[in-house]
Amino acid sequence: MAIKYEIHSIHNSKGEGGEQKFVRLRDHEPMTSKQIEEHIEQVCSLTRADVQAVMTALHGLIVTELSQGARFYLPQVGYLSLSVTTELPEGKTMEKVTGNDIRLRNINFKPTAELLNEVSRHVKFERSKFTTRSRQYTEEQLWNKMVNFLKENEYICRRDMEFHFSLRQQTALKWLKHFTEKGLLVKKGASNAPIYFLAEKN
Questions:
Q1: What single-letter DSSP state applies at residue 94?
Q2: Going by C-beta distance under 8 Å and a sequence separation of 6 or more, which residues neighbour residue 80?
Q3: Segment 97-146, tens digit of pLDDT
Q4: List of residues 6+ apart from 74 with CB closer than 8 A
Q5: Which of 12, 30, 46, 192 has the smallest C-beta neighbourhood within 10 Å, fewest atoms?
Q6: How far apart are the first and last CA of the chain?
Q7: Which pairs count as long-range contacts for 37-41, CB under 8 Å and 24+ apart, including other chains?
Q8: Are 90 and 83 in contact (CB under 8 A)?
Q9: By the 8 A CB rule, do 110 and 71 touch?
Q10: Helix (H) or strand (E) holding 74
Q11: Which residue has the higher pLDDT, 58 or 192?
Q12: Are 194 and 188 in contact (CB under 8 A)?
């Protein structure tokens, strides 16, 4: 099956007033753990319980090896390695960096050449007939829509912004942060799933 793609653009990307176009792939939802276990069970002699045990052991081994500064090799897949950054107090130079100033930023993945070549031979791309790009609003337009939504609902969340106003996740979060910082919304709830209420008028 061909992978759908869209052509997006970044306006004034280099500060010269122009725009830079780029390709964005339409991602599919990843397989769940259960789906992976069931698939492996069907294609080899391992049971789902065996697969779960292997995954658990592999996870523990990856944590141990990466925590000790080693790269981790997944046979026929690729390498995992650490990416770090520094958080220096004001006035402290790089020459005086200590271990306490270094933070883990990410875990990098580098595929093997064999994996990259094999995927390359099978992958196909097809331009999407529909766009997932966020709908464009002025601040006033979007705020009016949000106020109307909040007249009928107690609160609004990121998923509401995505579904009702055709926004991508990052754009929805950006607008919610913007209106919260302006004092128009009040953020409450868990940090990983906040909800937003209209701010009370003084």
A1: G
A2: 62, 66, 71, 72, 74, 107, 108, 109
A3: 899 889 998 999 999 999 999 999 999 998 877 655 667 889 999 999 99
A4: 80
A5: 192
A6: 57
A7: none
A8: no
A9: no
A10: strand 72-74
A11: 58
A12: yes
User: Tell me, what's the pLDDT at 133?
Assistant: 63
What sign does the CA torsion over 115, 116, 117, 119 have? Answer: positive
**Residue length, the chain?**
202
Specify whether the backbone of 91 is left (phi greater than 0), alpha (psi in -120 to 50) or beta.
Answer: left
Name the nearest CA neighbour of 127 among 15, 14, 29, 6: 6
Q: Are 25 and 5 in contact, with CB atoms under 8 Å apart?
A: yes
Q: Tokens at residue 172, please?
A: 């929805």
- Give the span between the Cα atoms of 34 and 180, in whole angstroms: 39
Provide the whole-model pTM.
Answer: 0.60
Amino acid 135: pLDDT: 76
Q: Token digits for 151?
A: 């007249």
Closest to 132 measured CA to CA, from 30, 10, 29, 24: 24
